[in-house]
């Protein structure tokens, strides 16, 4: 049993990881300012409503918690918003991480799992993407995460901090046994938006069908949030056992186009999803697919949700839990 602090633990991936670690017997505390996350995602008595820039409050949480390690999710994630308000992303994501790292040093906590993103690659040179490809983010969101990765690399070099950064591809799905799922406001992610189209009959816009992909729509690597939660657990175990720092892709290694996801959702729900073909969305690479062999080989990561249908099914179960059956 380890004492773990999860920042951003009221959010989508953070709350799944929190529940997963609790189910394995770890003592987990959650730190979240609730600017995006929801208190109902966090088990009773574990939530500290604190912003990462509030160092006095951070000190209080760390003084009480005696943490063995931190898992750091707290960040803004909307790519489009990051283009419109870059300062907000560098302040919250990069600045917030630095404030957390300062606090960790003050309290002698030297193990961190960091929530990174495929957005650090920008438009990849090769697909599937391996970790040592050129890192060239095409939006402030990706850059804000890369700046934190760079900070971590230097802290590993110059101090006793050890970290694992997980670069997620498209997190999706939900874990019904915890009653939590994907809830963003505003929602920008494909699968919940397809469900909205199915429920309301109002069409979802497919952003571009002239990409150099088999059906012209963007290809992404959809990975179940519970498999991501397990990747965090494995990274944490390695760090707690004295393992080295490292950076890992987390994806399934299989790409699906926007149209394939729409078709999968129609099959799972037995309902039609109306859609219209629209312009490309700014900053969308044509294809993002992970090579996650490093994660599999190093930690023995074996994703359980290995079909798109099973992932979409679990997301639909949460949608029904939230909005009622259709
Ligand atoms: N899409 C549509 N219509 C919509 C919404 C999405 O066609 O209404 C398309 C997008 O163009 C994209 C695909 O569906 O091709 C997936 O889009 P999402 O917004 O669900 O996810 P992204 O691939 O844009 O973003 C995800 C994460 C980001 C991360 C990025 C790169 O949400 O945080 O992957 O790793 F930066």
Radius of gyration, taken over Cα atoms and rounded to an integer in Å: 19 Å
Count every beta strand, where a strand is a DSSP E run of 2 or more residues.
14
What name is given to the CATH topology of the largest domain? Rossmann fold
| Low-pLDDT runs | none
How many domains? The number is: 2
* Overall pLDDT level: 97
User: Secondary-structure element sequence?
Assistant: EHEEHEHHEHEEHEEEHEEHEEHH
Total number of helical segments? 10
* Beta-strand content bin: 15-25%
Bound compounds, each kind once, are:
uridine-5'-diphosphate-4-deoxy-4-fluoro-alpha-D-galactose
Description:
This protein has helices at 12-23, 55-65, 79-84, 86-106, 140-158, 190-200, 225-240, 258-269, 293-299, 308-323; strands at 3-7, 27-32, 47-49, 69-72, 111-117, 162-168, 170-172, 204-207, 219-220, 222-224, 246-250, 256-257, 275-278, 287-288. The chain has 326 residues and is an alpha/beta fold. The protein folds into two domains: 3-171 and 223-250, NAD(P)-binding Rossmann-like Domain (Rossmann fold, 3-Layer(aba) Sandwich), CATH 3.40.50.720; 176-220 and 253-323, UDP-galactose 4-epimerase, domain 1, CATH 3.90.25.10. α5 (140-158) links the parallel β5 and β6. The mean pLDDT is 97. Bound molecules: uridine-5'-diphosphate-4-deoxy-4-fluoro-alpha-D-galactose. Pathway: Carbohydrate metabolism; galactose metabolism. Belongs to the NAD(P)-dependent epimerase/dehydratase family.
